[in-house]
Amino acid sequence: MTGFVPPPIVCAMGVIPVNIKELSFQEAAFSYPPSIARTPLPAVDSLLVGQPRASRALAMGMAVEADGYNIFVSGEPGSGRHTAVRMIAQQLSHDTRHLKDIVYVHCFDVPDSPSVVLFSPGTGEKFLAEMKNLAAFLRAAERNGEAETEDSTASFLKETDKLIDSAVGKYPETRLFLERVRQTIHMNPKIFVLPTDDDKEERETICSQCLPNLVVNRAGQDKRPFVEEPHPSYANVFGAVSPADGKTQLPHQSVKAGSLLQASGGFWVATADDILSEPNLWEALKRFLAMTTFSMKDGNAYGLPVGSLIRPEPVPLPVKIILIGSEETYDKLCESDASFLKLFKISAQFDYSMPATEENITGTIAFLRRHVEEKKLLPPDDAAIAETLRFSAWHVEHRGELTTQLSFLGDLLQEADYWARFSGEKEITAPAVITASNERDYISSVMENRITQEIISGEMVIALTGSKIGVVNGLAVMDRGLASFGTPAVITATVAPGNEGIVNIEHEAGLSGEIHDKGLLILEGYLRKRYARTFPLSLYAGICFEQSYAEVDGDSASSSELFALLSAIGEIPLRQDIAVTGSVNQMGEIQPVGGINEKIGGFFSVCQKMGLTGHQGVIIPRQNISALVLPYAVLDAIAQHTFHLYPIETIDEGMEILTNRIAGEQNAKGTFPVNSANKAIEDRLRKLYELSKTGT
Description:
Elements: E1 9-11, E2 14-16, H1 25-28, H2 52-63, E3 71-74, H3 81-91, E4 101-105, E5 115-119, H4 123-139, H5 150-170, H6 175-187, H7 190-193, H8 197-210, E6 213-216, E7 226-228, H9 234-238, E8 240-241, H10 251-254, E9 255-256, H11 259-262, E10 267-271, H12 272-277, H13 281-291, E11 296-298, E12 309-310, E13 320-325, H14 327-336, H15 340-343, E14 346-349, E15 353-355, H16 358-375, H17 382-396, E16 401-403, H18 406-422, H19 430-443, H20 446-457, E17 467-469, E18 471-480, E19 483-496, E20 501-504, H21 505-508, H22 514-530, E21 540-545, H23 558-570, E22 573-575, E23 578-580, E24 583-584, E25 590-591, H24 596-610, E26 617-621, H25 632-639, E27 644-648, H26 651-659, H27 677-694
Helix pairs in contact: 2-3, 4-5, 4-8, 5-6, 16-18, 17-19, 18-19, 20-24, 23-27
């Protein structure tokens, strides 16, 4: 093994070695070989990489024509959600069975509920032209002051019937509407043949009733519509009553189609959060999905008292609704909306990571090369591709996986292109990719630098050498936008006789989240299981994140808190040059945590600026080895044995590293070895119980 090895412990039983296993440089290092960039690319360059489940869910959901088979697409931005929806819609776009012109006509019985007529693509505008001819004939029927005669009226009606019969023959789907037009004209021939001034307004009304409103024109279209609604408001989605030029029109002529009507027979896509943030829109969309009914408001009075409210006849055409949102939004709708799962039966869940299989690696490389070509970037060399794949693994915190958020990799190459050109390179190199990543860290490191300066100046009290009782250096991750960094956090514990148990000072101050509270309760369970088997657990213990004034949440510091607590109970000093991260369960088993690379890098950065002693390092959960994609500066220090990583599986292993003292296992009689850390802790807990019992 490499690195610092503490001296053995000498006790009454003789020399007892402390077995500390340190992570070697070979185990800590991770990279992709440049040769991987020369892996043959797939014959068919798919736009979607590493999302087989989501792809299958989308393919089925977008093809099934049944009630409720709308789709909610969830996942992280950049994971290919929009790309997948467009791609699968393109594959289904040639099914034009439901491609129709949509025409609204006057409803003579209920004028505020215009009737809908569907035509094959391009026929709607021909019908509109036919009805314009009829209206023109009706307006020209006046006999210029000639007296009305039976012959002139009969001639007018005969010519009208010929025009209507011709339209019925060409457009049989309009028979009911045209018969009502005929009936209306036959009941009022006088206002056309010899109108008075009062009749002219009524004549114009009947002419307007004859004119249809072509709200969706599919002429020349040979693919299913795919409509993405970027600004979903009630009017944009469902349409509105918007008279042309402010003129009074009949309801059917005032209808302006929204994006849902434009998407009829195809696909309608919107962002879920945008829908939910618009007043009343989500409820209206659900009513539309349940009953295909909707109303239209006066566009000039939207959000104000309604000037006009009409309810057009539902369009009997399928519209596949696809909402795109986060996992949190999906879960919220599932929990709070009883009708949600009935209306959105398909969940297409996009994963944030994918296994680093040959297929996914080649798919990622194909994306990178396509991105370079589309954006006209400098060509990346093999080492640059390999470095970008390493960044992909870092992004998902797993050596055996890659990110599905390929757009993030494209952004990295875009920035690497800048730095390569800045350096006068003819291609993107690995150093350019590393520089792009480092520059991101530098640009967003204002807060990190401020914390480091406070540590150096002594404003933030933290020790990186020596030993202390009840004090341990934990590690936290702070986020700001897309950037995050690790920083040490001093955790202290104090112990006294009492019956209050473990007191979470953060909780008492209102600065502790629920998960952190749970972590503190787990510590009490560990103490009972490990030590308080023959006597009650009686103590007062206060645990605190020192100089922390923001909310603390998560359980990744629970092992650090337990080390500080055990140190305070047993009055055993802990090394201050080793920071700790890891979650712990009641059995004393260490569990993996997130942000491991940032935590290690953050502590190393502070140690480096304060001066590396050669003994500093970090205790990590053993399971987190697979997540290590460390900064090169950290790897160099590990190789030179000036910085160390200690993967552990149990609290006992960590105590031995932090105390240079054996933890000690219970024998068959249930007692710990003399001079072991656990023996000291058990004895002190028993003493605290006795003191609590006597009240002294």
